[in-house]
Amino acid sequence: MTSSTTRRNYSSFWDAVGREHEVCALRLKVSGRSWPTIRYRGSVGAVPFLLASSITTVAKKPQSAILSVVAIVSLGSTLDATRCTCSQEINQTMVTDHDIELAQHRITGHVRRTPTMSTAAGELGVGHDLTLKLECLQHTGSFKPRGAFNLALASEIPRSGLIAASGGNHGVAVAYVARQLGHHAEIFVPAISPKIKVDRIAALGAELHIGGTVYAEAQAACDIRQSETGALTLHTYDAVETVAGQATCGRELQAQHPEIDTVVVAVGGGGLAAGFAAAYR
What we know:
This protein is an alpha/beta fold and about 280 residues long. Helices cover about 35% and strands about 20% of the residues. It contains 9 helices and 11 strands. The strands form 3 sheets. Strands 1, 2, 3, 4 and 5 form a 5-stranded antiparallel beta sheet that branches. The longest helix has 17 residues, at about 240-255. The protein is globular.
């Protein structure tokens, strides 16, 4: 790890633009270099986290980069934010091969090396051969324990234990990590979190808090509580150790199927996408 990660706050800009739109197109520049237009489905508010986490695909070495949102447009709706711009300096920390190797060593024995499944062209409604990495068979049902274990095992955990904010899966993972390592955990979730995931967090023994109605409010409540207790924050994406832990999934896939030439990754906060970018760069 070459430097500390700086948290980024774009909330005022994205709140002004609007959050929930079905299909959006994004144009941006990083340190003066233009990216192709990105089309995606989902929340406008998730975009800066994806870009900030994945900026290593543009900035090839640790550096301060200027991220400028040139335009963001919701397709098929009335939103037109092409006149809006936002520039933010990002102190970007590269996730190195060494970080990933350390993560692989730390989490061995704590996570599963999940299998893959291959399908032929035409199956699953896709016209290409596919290889699926079955992280649904990971502990807690997602890739999240990889990053959570790595960050916890790389850190000195105080008596107050672990603390995290989550929409669901990360909270379940942190609760699981805390139970396995013998630590107390406090998890903040928004009121919109699925009941099944909230129930799993509680069942794993974590102290559960409902922190607001959306994820950003849960994170804010979590940050206030952390300042009071001194607990170790296990952030769902904004930490080098978290991203390096998620990168181990990519390294496993490389070893299992070195012939793969294209990888498609689901994106929420950007931790898994950033991990795969680091693993495959």
